[in-house]
TrEMBL record:
PROSITE patterns: ISPF. This is 2-C-methyl-D-erythritol 2,4-cyclodiphosphate synthase. HAMAP family: IspF (MF_00107). Homotrimer. NCBIfam families: ispF. Pfam families: YgbB. The keyword Plastid applies.
C-alpha cells in the first residue's frame, strides 16, 4: 500500500503539470488567435477604409469630369450661338468648277458668251458668280453656296446666279461690311475672254454695288492640260476683301 500510495502520489504532480502546460498552451493559442483576429480586423478596416476612399475618389473624379464636360458643352453651344466677331476687315476665297457640255449656254459674270458649249449645272452654271458668292460667304464665316442654295431644290432650277449674288450682298450689308476689293481669275481654254472682260467686269461691279476700280478680272488658259485644257470644263477663283462700314 505504501508503494502504491507513493506511485499514486508521484503521478499526480506529473498529470497536473501536463494539464497546466496544456492550459497554458491553449491560453497562448487563444491569445494568438485573438491577436490575429484583432490584426485582421484592423487590416480589414484599413482595407475597407481604403476601398471606400478609392470609391469616393472615383466618384469625385467622375463628378468633376461630368461637370467639366457639361461646362464644355454649354460653352460650345454658347459659342455656336455667338455672332461672328466684328473685325475691321474680312478676307474670303471662292472656287468653282463646271463641266462644259454641248446644248447649254455659256454664262460668265451674268454675260452670255458665244460658244459651242456651256456649263452643265442646276442653275445657270455661272462659274464666276458662284465663286464670287462663295468668297463673300466665306469672308462672313457663313455656309457655302451649296448649303444656302442646294442643287436638289427645284426652286433654284435654271435660276440666274445674279439672285445668289444679291443674297450674298444683302448678308454682307446686314453684317455691316462692304466690298474693299475683289480679284477673280477665270481658267478656261476656249473661248478667248479678252473681248468680253470689261463687259463682265462692269456687270460684276454693278451686281456687287462696288466701284469698278475695286473689281479686277483675269483670264488664263490651262495650257491644254487635263479637263480645263481640253475644253471640257471651266473654273474660277475669287479673293474678296470686306471692309467694316
Amino acid at each position: 500500500m505504501a508503494m502504491a500510495s507513493t506511485i499514486f502520489s508521484s503521478t499526480i504532480p506529473a498529470k497536473s503539470t501536463r494539464e497546466t502546460l496544456s492550459v497554458r498552451s491553449l491560453s497562448s493559442s487563444l491569445s494568438s488567435v485573438r491577436s490575429f483576429n484583432n490584426n485582421n480586423n484592423k487590416a480589414s478596416f484599413k482595407f475597407e477604409s481604403l476601398s471606400l476612399s478609392s470609391q469616393s475618389n472615383r466618384f469625385l473624379k467622375n463628378l468633376t469630369m461630368a461637370s467639366a464636360t457639361t461646362t464644355i458643352d454649354v460653352e460650345r453651344e454658347a459659342n455656336m450661338k455667338t455672332p461672328s466677331k466684328v473685325l475691321p476687315f474680312r478676307v474670303g476665297h471662292g472656287f468653282d468648277l463646271h463641266r462644259l457640255e454641248p446644248g447649254y449656254p455659256l454664262i460668265i459674270g451674268g454675260i452670255d458668251i458665244p460658244h459651242d458649249r456651256g456649263c452643265e449645272a442646276h442653275s445657270d452654271g455661272d462659274v464666276l458668280l458662284h465663286c464670287v458668292v462663295d468668297a463673300i460667304l466665306g469672308a462672313l464665316g457663313l455656309p457655302d453656296i451649296g448649303q444656302i442654295f442646294p442643287d436638289n431644290d427645284p426652286k433654284w432650277k435654271g435660276c440666274r446666279s445674279s439672285v445668289f449674288v444679291e443674297e450674298a450682298v444683302r448678308l454682307m450689308h446686314e453684317a455691316g461690311y462692304e466690298i474693299g476689293n475683289l480679284d477673280a481669275t477665270l481658267i478656261l481654254q476656249r473661248p478667248k475672254l479678252s473681248p468680253h472682260k470689261e463687259t463682265i467686269r462692269a456687270n460684276l461691279s454693278k451686281l456687287l454695288g462696288a466701284d469698278l476700280s475695286v473689281v479686277n478680272l483675269k483670264a488664263k488658259t490651262h495650257e491644254k492640260v487635263d479637263s480645263l485644257g481640253e475644253n471640257r470644263s471651266i473654273a474660277a477663283h475669287t479673293v474678296v476683301l470686306l471692309m467694316k462700314k
